[in-house]
C-alpha cells in the first residue's frame, strides 16, 4: 500500500516541490519520517493522527514509512500537514476504493491541521502558488484564510478548504471545492504617512525628500532633538509612487514568508515603511536564524527602511547594511545553504550630531570635540559613503511655527513630480529601476558632462575629500535633479545642488 501526494517547502522566498511518499506495511504500529524534517514537521504525526480520527476515519494500525522527497532539501513548518494526512488516508485504502482518488492528480496541497481537522493558514503561500504554476500544477488546495493570497497568481486554480474532511471528499471525487477569486489588494505594515504640508519650514530637507523619492536615493537627516527629523522621514512614505504589479508580487512574497499578509487580502499595493527600534539585533535587521527568515531590510524591499536614532544602533547591525545597500539583496549562509532575500530599499536615517544634540545647531553645544567626534564615529565612513543625501536640519524658528500662511504645496503635489521623474527613468532603464540603482559603468554612460561641469565636480571632489563612490553618487543624484527639471542633460546647476548634499562627508568623517 503506497501513495504519493504533492506538497511544497519554502526556502527563503523560494518554494520547492516536495513529494510525500507513504508506505503502509504490516508489523508493529510505527511512524517513520525521513527527508530532513525539522521539529515542527516531525510533530505533524500528532496533528495528522488526531485530524484523521476527528474526520470520522480510522488511523491505520500498521507501520508507516514516510519519505519527504527530495531528501536533501530541509523541510520546516506546518505546511506539509495536509498532504501528509491525505497521503496516509490514500495509502491505507486497502482494498483501493472504486474509482481511485481522482482529485489528487497534479494538485499541490498546503496547510496546517488542527487536532479537530480544521485547516489553519500557513506563511509562504504566495511563493508556493507562484512556483506551482511554473511546475505546471493543475491547481493548489489551501486553507480558506490563504485563498485570497494564492488567488493573486494568474493562471492557477486555487481551491480553499475549511477542514481535512472537505479535502478528502474532493480527492475522492465526491464533492467539488470552489475556485477562489482574486481578493481586493491589501496594504503593507506601515504607519500612516505624514503630509509634507504639515512640516513647518525645513525647505532644504523637503527638497531632499523629493530627490530621495524621485531617484530612490538614501537619506540621512542630522540635527538636534525637536527639529522634525522623524516627521520628515515619515512624510517620505507619502511621496513614493504606488507599486507596479511586478513590484507588488515581490513585496507580497517577502511579507508572505514572514507571515505578515493578513487573511483575506491579496497583493500588497503600498510601499512598505519599516521603522525598527534601535535595539534591534543584527539578525532582526538583515535576517537570519537556523532556517533563515527575512529581516527588516528585506521587509522594506521596494519601500522605506527608517532608522531613527541611527547612531544608537548596534555597530555590527549597521555595518551589516553595507552589502544590501550596494547590491540590493541579502545573502544568508547557514552550513551548506545560502538564502537570498531581495532588499532594494530606500534607507532614511535620522540622528543627533552629538550626545546633547546641539552640535551643528543654533543652540549651544556642551560636548567636547572628542565627545562629538566619538559620537559621530558610530556611523562609519563606509556606511555614510553609501548614503546619497546628507541634510543638516536645525530647530524651526518660532515665526515659522506660529505662521498661519497656507503651505505652498502638499505631498500630492510633490508626488506628481516624483511620478514624472520616475517615468523618465523607467523609459531610460526599464521598469522598476531608478537612478540610485545604476552601477558605476552605467552612471558614466548615462551622465555625460561638458568641460565646465567637470571642473565644478573636480573642485568639489578636492575640497570635500570625496571618495570614488561619492563621485558616482553625486552623478546619480544630479541625474535625478535633471529628471525633476525635465532636462535631458546634466549641467552645472544639477552638479552644484547634488554637491550641497555631500558636505557632511568632511564634517562627519
Structure notes:
The protein has 509 residues and is an alpha/beta fold. The protein is 38% helix and 17% strand. Strand 8, helix 5 (147-150) and strand 9 form a beta-alpha-beta unit. Helix 7 packs parallel to helix 8 and helix 18 crosses helix 20 (468-485). It is elongated.
In angstroms, what separates the terminal alpha carbons? Answer: 71 Å
Tally of contiguous helical segments: 22
Helices and strands: which structural class? Answer: alpha/beta
Number of strands: 16
Alpha carbon gyration radius: 28 Å
Give the uncertain stretches in residue-range form: none
Average per-residue pLDDT, rounded, comes to 90
Summarize the structure.
This protein is 38% helix and 17% strand. The protein has 509 residues and is α/β, with parallel strands linked by helices.
Task: Provide keyphrases for this structure.
five-stranded parallel beta sheet, 509 residues, single chain, four-stranded mixed beta sheet, 16 strands, alpha/beta
Amino acid at each position: 500500500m503506497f501513495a504519493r501526494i504533492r506538497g511544497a517547502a519554502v526556502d527563503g522566498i523560494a518554494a520547492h516541490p516536495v513529494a510525500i511518499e507513504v508506505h503502509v506495511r504490516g508489523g508493529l504500529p510505527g511512524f517513520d519520517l525521513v527527508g530532513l524534517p525539522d521539529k515542527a514537521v516531525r510533530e505533524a504525526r500528532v496533528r495528522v493522527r488526531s485530524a484523521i480520527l476527528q474526520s470520522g476515519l480510522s488511523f491505520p494500525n500498521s507501520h508507516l514509512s514516510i519519505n519527504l522527497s527530495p531528501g536533501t532539501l530541509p523541510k520546516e513548518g506546518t505546511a506539509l500537514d495536509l498532504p501528509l494526512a491525505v497521503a496516509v488516508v490514500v495509502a491505507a485504502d486497502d482494498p483501493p476504493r472504486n474509482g481511485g482518488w481522482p482529485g489528487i492528480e497534479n494538485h499541490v496541497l498546503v496547510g496546517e491541521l488542527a487536532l479537530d481537522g480544521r485547516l489553519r493558514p500557513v506563511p509562504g503561500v504566495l511563493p508556493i502558488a507562484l512556483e506551482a504554476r511554473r511546475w505546471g500544477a493543475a491547481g493548489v488546495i489551501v486553507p480558506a484564510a490563504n485563498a485570497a493570497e494564492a488567488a493573486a497568481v494568474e493562471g492557477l486554480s486555487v481551491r480553499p478548504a475549511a477542514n481535512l474532511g472537505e479535502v478528502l471528499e474532493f480527492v475522492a471525487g465526491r464533492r467539488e471545492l470552489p475556485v477562489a477569486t482574486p481578493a481586493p489588494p491589501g496594504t503593507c505594515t506601515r504607519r500612516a504617512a505624514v503630509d509634507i504640508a504639515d512640516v513647518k519650514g525645513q525647505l532644504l530637507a523637503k527638497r531632499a525628500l523629493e530627490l530621495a523619492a524621485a531617484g530612490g536615493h538614501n537619506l540621512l537627516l542630522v540635527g538636534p532633538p525637536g527639529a522634525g527629523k522623524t516627521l520628515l522621514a515619515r512624510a517620505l512614505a507619502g511621496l513614493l509612487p504606488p507599486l507596479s504589479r511586478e513590484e507588488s508580487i515581490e513585496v507580497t512574497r517577502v511579507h508572505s514568508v514572514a507571515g505578515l499578509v493578513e487573511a483575506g487580502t491579496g497583493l500588497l499595493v503600498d510601499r512598505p515603511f519599516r521603522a525598527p527600534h534601535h535595539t534591534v539585533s543584527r539578525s532582526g535587521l538583515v535576517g537570519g536564524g537556523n532556517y533563515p527568515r527575512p529581516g527588516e531590510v528585506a521587509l522594506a524591499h521596494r519601500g522605506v527602511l527608517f532608522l531613527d536614532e541611527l547612531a544608537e544602533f548596534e555597530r555590527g547591525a549597521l555595518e551589516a547594511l553595507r552589502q544590501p545597500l550596494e547590491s540590493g539583496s541579502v545573502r544568508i549562509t547557514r552550513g551548506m545553504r545560502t538564502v537570498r532575500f531581495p532588499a532594494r530599499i530606500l534607507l532614511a536615517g535620522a540622528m543627533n550630531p552629538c550626545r546633547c544634540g546641539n552640535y551643528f545647531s543654533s543652540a549651544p553645544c556642551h560636548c567636547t570635540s572628542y565627545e562629538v567626534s566619538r559620537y559621530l564615529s558610530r556611523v562609519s565612513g563606509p556606511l555614510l559613503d553609501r548614503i546619497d543625501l546628507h541634510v543638516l536640519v536645525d530647530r524651526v524658528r518660532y515665526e515659522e511655527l506660529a505662521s498661519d500662511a497656507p503651505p505652498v504645496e502638499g505631498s500630492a503635489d510633490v508626488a506628481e513630480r516624483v511620478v514624472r521623474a520616475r517615468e523618465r527613468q523607467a523609459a531610460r532603464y526599464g521598469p522598476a529601476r531608478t537612478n540610485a540603482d545604476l552601477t558605476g559603468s552605467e552612471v558614466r554612460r548615462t551622465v555625460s558632462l561638458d568641460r565646465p561641469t567637470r571642473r565644478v565636480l573636480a573642485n568639489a571632489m578636492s575640497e570635500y575629500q570625496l571618495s570614488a563612490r561619492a563621485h558616482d553618487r553625486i552623478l546619480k543624484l544630479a541625474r535625478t535633479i535633471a529628471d525633476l527639471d525635465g532636462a535631458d542633460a546634466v549641467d552645472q546647476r544639477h552638479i552644484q545642488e547634488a554637491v550641497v548634499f555631500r558636505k557632511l562627508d568632511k564634517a562627519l568623517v
